[in-house]
Each structure stands twice: as structure tokens, then as C-alpha cells.
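thought: user wants a sequence for this fold. calling inverse folding tool.
action: design(structure=
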């Protein structure tokens, strides 16, 4: 709840710091790059504090026990693990509060001008209008499927690296490589969408991960291949982070053009998009938890049954690939191309 109370107004603030599309796109790119870097920082803090409390054997320590359920050499006490999580949570909470304070005192909203005669929407009116706006529904549903795909991949990748590939001591570093690759390629995606358009960037960026999802489960476990795939996957993660938030302001602008006498609706577009993303996160968690439970996964064990390895392979490759394909097919019907976007920009300038 606390995260949602912060995330919804924080995301919607993009619409209020500038009325210019290029400036909003640039602000979105900077915001997403910092968010990914924040994720890198959180992963590093969490991994270094908590990851150091595992004493399970690596492949070199026990080459024949990767999938043997009879081996369990975890010697770290529960109290040590709890303490590690408490320390990591405390550090991250301090960073969270500090960043929120910087946002509150450092960012100024632009006041809306030229439309004093219009009345703000009630929640019921806004909900009805937003849910009936075709481009918004197509954008949200399309990215709902692609977001679910990447959440399944991200949520199970650490377990996949640990139990299916056997890189127990390297999974934190591999996750850091993915997020660093994503952070460093966000500026490139910003240039790409400016040069070729946002729909093309969405298709190319999101589909980029598909061959590497297939590769990682097709080849024999190899640490170098895992790192190479992680770098390539990070490129697609950057597109998945950036493009939905870059395209959402265009939908809001399109709504303004079609409903020039309505104001106060921006937060509704962002809040419902955040809701659908959180919904996808919940669905991803449910699918992963149930699938691993049926496969016989035991939390805290150093080794897992063979069925767990197979389930993890399915959760990080075939299922996300199908979801990405469905999401991209839906995005194909998204009507706001570059020509319509530029036309909306000119109309809004005239209105202002």
C-alpha cells in the first residue's frame, strides 16, 4: 500500500513537470534509468548482505548432487538469516526515505493554464471515460502480457541459475549484469524511439529477449554463456522498463485532444496502469509459487528434485515467449503512431 501511494503520484508527475512531448520523453528516460540503477543498488545491497549467509555447495564442491533431494548441507542458522534480512531492509528503507525527500523538496509542478472554465472529473466519470478510451486499453493490455512475461523471467531467474544451471555462487553477479546492462542501454532506446518511433521500438526491444530466452534453456550449463545471455537480456529489460512509461503520456495527450473540456484525469491513467502492473506481478507470483510447489520445491534446501529444474526452465522460456507474442500482437492494434502523435502535439499547442 505504501509503495502504491508513492508510485502512482510519482509516475503521474511526468505529466505535470512539462507540457512538451520531447521534454516528457527525456524526463521519462532519465527516470527509468535511475529506477534501473536503483534496482541495481537494491540487488547489490540485498545480495551482498543476504547472499553471504548461504553455505550450500557449488558444482565443484558436489558435482553429482545438483538435483539430488537427499543432500542438504545448509548450516546457516535461522537467526543469522533473519538478521541479514533485517539489516538489508533497514539500509534500503533509509535510501527510500532519502530519495522521497529529494523528490518532494526538489521537483516543482507546472500549474495548468488556459482552461479555468472546465470542471474536474469525479472518480466515477473519470473511470468510465478512461476505460472507454481505446488506445489506453490496447496499450495497457498489450503491456500487461509483456510485463507478465518479464516478471516471470525476473522472478524465477535466480532460482533457475541456482538449481537448473548450478551457478549458485554467481547468481547475484548475473542479476547485477542484467540490471547494469539495462541501465546502460536505456539512453540508446531513448535515441531509437526518437529516431524510429515508439511502436517500432516496442516491437524490436521486447522481442530482442526471445532468442536468448530460448538459448539459455537449450544449451548445456555454461557460466560464460549465462553472462552473455544476461547482457543481452538486460537490453530487452531496458526496453520493457522504458517504453510503456514513454507511451503512456501519448495516450493522455490523445485523450485531451478528444476531450478538450475535461481535466483532472491524468492520475487516473497512471493509477490504473500501475494497478494492472501490480496485478501482473501478483499473477506472476501465483503462477511461480504454485508451479514450484507442485514440482516439489522445498524452500531453503541446497538441492531440489529434477522436476523443479524442468519447471524453472518452462517458467523462464516457453511461457514468457508465448506471453510476449500475445502482447506484441495486441500492441499491433495500438493506433497512436508517430503521425498521430505529432498531430496531437500540434493540436495541444494550439489549445494551450
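)
observation: tool returned 352 residues.
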Amino acid at each position: 500500500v505504501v509503495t502504491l501511494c508513492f508510485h502512482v503520484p510519482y509516475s503521474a508527475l511526468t505529466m505535470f513537470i512539462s507540457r512538451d512531448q520531447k521534454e516528457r520523453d527525456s524526463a521519462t528516460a532519465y527516470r527509468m534509468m535511475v529506477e534501473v540503477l536503483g534496482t541495481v543498488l537494491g540487488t547489490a545491497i540485498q545480495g551482498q548482505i543476504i547472499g553471504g549467509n548461504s553455505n550450500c555447495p557449488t558444482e565443484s564442491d558436489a558435482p553429482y548432487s545438483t538435483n539430488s533431494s537427499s543432500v542438504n548441507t545448509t548450516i546457516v542458522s535461522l537467526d543469522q538469516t533473519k538478521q541479514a534480512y533485517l539489516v538489508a531492509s533497514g539500509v534500503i528503507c533509509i535510501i527510500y526515505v532519502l530519495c522521497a525527500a529529494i523528490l518532494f523538496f526538489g521537483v516543482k509542478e507546472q500549474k495548468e493554464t488556459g482552461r479555468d472554465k472546465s470542471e474536474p472529473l469525479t472518480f466515477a466519470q473519470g473511470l468510465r471515460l478512461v476505460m472507454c478510451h481505446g488506445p489506453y486499453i490496447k496499450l495497457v493490455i498489450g503491456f500487461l502480457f509483456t510485463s507478465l512475461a518479464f516478471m516471470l523471467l525476473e522472478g524465477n531467474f535466480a532460482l533457475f541459475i541456482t538449481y537448473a544451471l548450478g551457478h549458485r555462487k554467481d547468481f547475484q553477479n548475473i542479476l547485477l549484469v542484467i540490471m547494469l546492462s539495462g541501465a546502460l542501454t536505456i539512453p540508446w532506446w531513448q535515441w531509437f524511439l526518437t529516431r524510429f518511433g515508439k511502436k517500432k521500438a516496442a516491437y524490436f526491444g521486447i522481442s530482442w529477449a526471445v532468442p536468448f530466452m530460448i538459448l539459455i534453456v537449450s544449451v548445456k550449463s555454461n557460466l560464460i554463456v549465462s553472462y552473455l545471455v544476461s547482457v543481452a537480456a538486460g537490453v530487452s529489460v531496458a526496453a520493457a522498463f522504458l517504453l510503456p512509461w514513454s507511451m503512456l503520456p501519448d495516450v493522455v495527450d490523445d485523450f485531451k485532444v478528444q476531450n478538450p473540456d475535461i481535466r483532472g484525469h491524468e492520475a487516473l491513467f497512471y493509477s490504473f496502469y500501475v494497478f494492472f502492473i501490480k496485478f501482473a506481478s501478483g499473477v506472476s507470483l501465483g503462477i511461480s509459487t504454485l508451479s514450484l510447489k507442485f514440482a516439489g520445491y522445498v524452500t531453503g534446501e541446497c538441492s531440489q528434485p529434477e522436476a523443479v529444474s524442468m519447471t524453472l526452465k518452462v517458467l523462464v522460456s516457453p511461457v514468457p515467449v508465448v506471453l510476449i507474442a500475445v502482447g506484441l500482437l495486441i500492441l499491433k492494434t495500438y493506433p497512436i503512431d508517430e503521425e498521430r502523435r505529432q498531430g496531437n502535439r500540434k493540436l495541444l499547442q494550439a489549445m494551450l
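thought: summarizing for user.
answer: Here is the designed sequence. The CA atoms of residues 33 and 184 lie 8 Å apart.
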